[in-house]
Design a protein that fits this description.
Elements lengths: L2 E5 L3 H12 L8 E4 L4 H11 L2 E3 L2 H7 E6 L6 H5 L10 E4 L6 H8 L5 E5 L9 E7 L5 H12 L2 E5 L5 H9 L1 H18 L4 H21 L4 H8 L5 H11 L2 H32 L1
Parallel strand pairs: 1-2, 1-4, 2-3, 4-5, 5-6, 7-8
Antiparallel strand pairs: 6-7
Helix pairs in contact: 7-12, 8-9
The chain binds 1,4-dihydronicotinamide adenine dinucleotide and (2S)-3,4-dihydro-2H-pyrrole-2-carboxylic acid.
The site of (2S)-3,4-dihydro-2H-pyrrole-2-carboxylic acid has 4 residues, from helix 7.
Catalytic activity: L-proline + NAD(+) = (S)-1-pyrroline-5-carboxylate + NADH + 2 H(+); L-proline + NADP(+) = (S)-1-pyrroline-5-carboxylate + NADPH + 2 H(+)
Subcellular location: Cytoplasm
Enzyme class: oxidoreductase
Length: 279
């Protein structure tokens, strides 16, 4: 597959690097990561994974057949500046929330093959839920390459570009919702008298068990829930509180708001770009 280069050395780049190495998709010497200026971070990644690191984006672009854009959306212009001329046959994979093909193409200053991907940090353990969308310049072969890349670190669905903000609100941000749930469950467990280490193990196993039940059972989650909920029992008492306090509405609104935020990132960025162009 050639080498893969990451521009941006943050949480998402690290999760992908860890997963790709774990899945033996790339050897450490086939992975190169660049960031803006933080040498300590690059040293840390190099030590942990044995990968190549650099501040020299030109070198990265020349060495890589796939270039992953993994900076924050606000940094895309600076992140791409200086490499436009060097992009020829490389496949550009952007994991940036909200930023459209149109914007990336405008910054690159040329029509080229771009895949937008929305993975999540569970990529680090090969369990990312990723969706990708392909620009019109991407060949079927490049789509397959990209799918196998993300399937090596989890599952990968092909969607339309206009569905990516929804994917971002659902599964891109999704791990954080689950971590928040676990934080709350741990707090409650301690308040009802359990030790934190015991509580953590019980919560983790409860999540793993429930996830696997959803994954393998033919029953709808609502049926699985019904089977836990004895009439007048403990679950019913607990779920009554969740209903009274708007749990479902909170989660639905949370995912809608995160989706909307991805759209705002695009709009904010495009405003900024227009301001830069006017100067
Ligand atoms: N963290 C997550 O769970 C997910 C993040 N994403 C997307 O991934 C991207 C990165 O997110 P994180 O890793 O969380 O951010 P982060 O803040 O941890 O990392 C961003 C990295 O970009 C680098 N950077 C900034 N400007 C640069 C430049 N001009 N040239 C080279 N490198 C530059 C920074 O030095 C840093 O290493 C974002 O666009 C986000 O929307 C997508 C899916 C999930
Ligand atoms: O919070 C964010 O904007 C990024 C995108 C999805 C997960 N993290």
């Amino acid at each position: 597959m050639g080498s893969i280069g990451f521009i941006g050395a943050g949480s998402m780049a690290e999760a992908m690097v860890a997963g790709l190495l774990k899945g033996k998709v790339y050897k450490p010497e086939e992975v190169v990561v660049a960031n803006r200026s933080n040498s300590a971070r690059l040293e840390q990644l190099s030590k942990m994974y044995g990968i190549k690191t650099t501040h020299d984006k030109e070198r990265l672009v020349k060495e890589s057949s796939i270039i992953v854009l993994a900076m924050k959306p606000k940094d895309i212009q600076a992140g791409i500046d200086g490499i436009q001329e060097l992009i020829e046959n490389q496949l550009i994979v952007s994991v940036l929330a909200g930023i459209s093909f149109e914007t990336i193409t405008n910054i690159l200053g040329k029509q080229t093959a771009i895949v937008r991907a929305m993975p999540n940090t569970s990529a680090a353990i090969g369990k990312s839920a990723t969706a990708i969308a392909a620009s019109k310049d991407v060949t079927n072969e490049q789509i397959e390459t990209c799918k196998s890349l993300f399937e090596a670190i989890g599952i990968c669905k092909l969607v339309e570009e206009n569905q990516l903000d929804a994917v971002t609100g659902l599964s891109g941000s999704g791990p954080a919702y689950i971590y928040y749930l676990v934080e709350a469950m741990e707090k409650a467990a301690i308040e009802v008298g359990l030790e934190s280490a015991v509580a953590r193990d019980l919560i983790v196993q409860t999540l793993l068990g429930a996830s696997e039940m959803i994954a393998i059972s033919e029953k709808h989650p609502s049926q699985l829930r019904k089977e836990v909920t004895s009439p007048n029992g403990t679950t019913e008492a607990g779920i009554t509180i969740l209903k009274e306090r708007g749990f479902e509405d909170s989660l639905v609104t949370c995912i809608k708001r995160a989706t909307e935020r991805a759209t705002e990132l695009k709009v904010m960025f495009e405003d900024e770009l227009i301001t830069i162009e006017k100067k």
